[in-house]
Amino acid sequence: AALGAAGRREEALDRLRQTTARRPPFPPAFREYSDQLAKAGRFDEAIAVAETGLQLTPDVIELMVDLGRLYLGRNDRARARSMFSLALAASPGRRDVQAALARVMVFDGEYAAAADIYRHVLALQPDDAMTRIDLGMCQLELADRNAGEASLRAAARGRPEMIGRAMHSLASA
Question: Contact, 98 vs 85, CB < 8 A?
Answer without folding.
Answer: no
